Amino acid sequence: MTRTQRFESSWPFPDMGIPAAMVESRFESDVSTPADFAAMDVPLPDDLAEAVPMRRAAHLAGRICAREALRQCGSAEMPVGRSPSGAPLWPKGCKGSITHAGRMAGAVAVASAACRGIGLDFEAPMTEAAAAEISDLVLCSLDRETMGSMPALSFAESVTLVFSLKESLYKAISPLLGAFTGFEDAEIDDLEGGRARLRLRRKLSDDLPQGLEIEGAYALSPDLVRTLVVLR
């Protein structure tokens, strides 16, 4: 990549039993000009042409992470398109997820035969004030009980983790959704050793029944929460 952009293979999670590839990048906001997009053969979407440099840089870094993850998965087609809503369009035969937080971007890719869906999310740790403000929106009663099993985490760190897991869950299940969904539609009943278990609290489609249990994973560092959800 031009200038300061770096892309590295990464897998901070426990083994999930699928042949997925993950790539992440710490990027700089000035790597965001039309020339940078052209140099990396990534289209600059019209609606991002006038966006702030950080948003353009995040999009560029995320798409390059996705392309490299696809390459590592053995995909013959590596461009990741973009739907009218801005969602990534993955090549036939592959599934994946892209995320950004601060100056970090990441992507995960896997062959479609390996799972029904996959979601990746990065979040900067919330402040105590921000966590308190959104906690009633994000947390159900079981989430709060499960958070109690991790006393080493502050309230803000726990809320950030639950928020991120539910974001990863949404990315994993969104292609199968038959109804609007929110944070209240899933609960987390286990967090231990980098693994999580999520459960749907109501039916979201024929493929996503109430009570469905879904595997997750997490990795915590002082400046970033990483989560992954795999829908088998």
Automatic annotation (TrEMBL):
Query: Which residues are in the 4'-phosphopantetheinyl transferase domain?
Result: 117-203
Entry binding sites for Mg(2+): D121, E123
The coenzyme or cofactor needed here is: Mg(2+)
Is ATP-binding set as a keyword in this record? no
Give this protein's Gene Ontology molecular function annotations: holo-[acyl-carrier-protein] synthase activity; magnesium ion binding
- Biological processes annotated in GO: enterobactin biosynthetic process
Keywords annotated in UniProt: Enterobactin biosynthesis, Magnesium, Metal-binding, Transferase
Recorded catalytic reaction(s): these are: apo-[aryl-carrier protein] + CoA = holo-[aryl-carrier protein] + adenosine 3',5'-bisphosphate + H(+); apo-[peptidyl-carrier protein] + CoA = holo-[peptidyl-carrier protein] + adenosine 3',5'-bisphosphate + H(+)
Domain 4'-phosphopantetheinyl transferase N-terminal, chain residue ranges per copy: 48-109
Q: Name one Pfam family in it.
A: ACPS
GO CC annotation terms, alphabetical: enterobactin synthetase complex; plasma membrane
Binding of CoA occurs at R55, R63, T99, H100, D121, E167, K171
This protein's superkingdom?
Answer: Bacteria
| Pathway in which this enzyme or protein is active | Siderophore biosynthesis; enterobactin biosynthesis
Coiled coil segments of this chain: none
Q: Which family does it belong to?
A: Belongs to the P-Pant transferase superfamily. EntD family.
Subunit structure, as described in the record: EntB, EntD, EntE, and EntF form a multienzyme complex called enterobactin synthase.
Known role: Involved in the biosynthesis of the siderophore enterobactin (enterochelin), which is a macrocyclic trimeric lactone of N-(2,3-dihydroxybenzoyl)-serine. The serine trilactone serves as a scaffolding for the three catechol functionalities that provide hexadentate coordination for the tightly ligated iron(2+) atoms.
Q: What protein is this chain from?
A: Enterobactin synthase component D
